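Ticket #4471: structure export looks truncated?
Reporter: QA, pipeline team
Priority: medium

Steps to reproduce: submit the single chain below to the structure queue and open the exported record.
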Amino acid sequence: MRALSTAMPRSLALAVMIALLSAQSVVVHAADLPPRPIASPANPWVSVPAPSLYDPQRFELRAGVLGEVLGAEKGTVGVNAELLFPRFFVIPVLPELFTPRLHVGVVAHTSHGTSFVYAGATWTHYYTERIFGELYFGATWHNGQLYYYDPNRNALGCRVLFHVGVNHGYRFDQHWSVMLTLDHSSAGTVLTGCRANESLNQVGVKVGYQF
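Actual output as written to the record:
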């Protein structure tokens, strides 16, 4: 009985010493960890690396080339210019990526392809601080043909079309980025009642400058 009572204080002291050494080890390792990401000011649900290269409160000018890949105008190439506006508002109850930015742009074809101007909204999501994806939606006004008069032009059905597309890009620094674009404009015959809908389907590359 006396041996048991003597062993218990020794075991208790040993357990206290182990706990203290473990606590000290945890403190040391925690100090070596990298700092936690800071919460986005626009939405505390979203954490982004600090400092972030992407600033949605700035303008961004984009320019590039888009080539038609389907229909009678396949192979034509157009010059693209676009202005992305700063974010004018935030949807506070949703994650930051759900808040769009407005854009306007033009695609001018150098040959017999259809040229058009467009406007709409762009939703941007950064997978990392440099790699991002975008979805955009809006409307297009074009100078192409509506019906099947010219065999070298796509028959688009309506003068105003739906405009939708995606960008996948890489940001080099706080100013410059590059992106691959898939762009589509169509009449949406079921919704609009247009009698033709050959659409415009373009693939290209853009360079962006944030200022």
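Status: closed, not a bug. The export was complete when the record was re-opened. Leaving a note from the reviewer for reference: The mean pLDDT is 81.
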